[in-house]
Design brief:
Blueprint lengths: L1 H13 L8 H7 L4 H8 L2 H13 L7 H11 L12 H11 L2 H32 L1
The protein binds zinc ion.
The site of zinc ion has 7 residues, from loops.
């Protein structure tokens, strides 16, 4: 009984609650390490606030990503959680596997995609404000 309680305590201290990655892996595979990851990348309160936000927002006001996650939450699905995934580890592993040129092309593409997404999001907001 005491051993089980100790294991659970160690898990709480050494494993990210959101993704399940360990302190050892996050300290080894990210520049910032486990503590930063747990406090910033996968802060449990960000997820709590996001779920409250989704619950309180009118379904018709949700954007595409929010709608998809809200639907999964309604169906009690957890696939939207980054289980055993961290963007920083994925990015770092990607950079190690590619040449600098490929990485730059990919980052350019990512930046262009983000800018297009932001422009589309702005257009949608403008359209919504015209319709309401
Ligand atoms: Zn995590």
């Amino acid at each position: 009984m005491r051993e089980q309680a100790t294991d659970e305590h160690n898990d709480r201290i050494h494993i990210c609650f959101i993704c399940g990655l360990s302190l050892v892996q996050l300290d080894r595979d990210t520049d910032e390490g486990f503590v930063f990851h747990r406090e910033h990348d996968h802060n449990i309160w960000y997820y709590v606030y996001f779920l409250i936000y989704l619950d309180n927002k009118d379904k018709s006001d949700l954007n595409g990503v929010e709608s998809a996650i809200a639907e999964q939450v309604d169906n009690e699905e957890l696939s939207w959680f980054p289980i055993l995934k961290s963007l920083k580890i994925i990015k770092k592993q990607g950079k190690n596997n590619r040449s600098a040129t490929d990485a730059n092309k990919s980052e350019d593409l990512g930046l262009r995609m983000r800018l297009k997404y932001q422009a589309a999001d702005e257009s949608l907001k403008n359209l919504e404000s015209l319709l309401t």
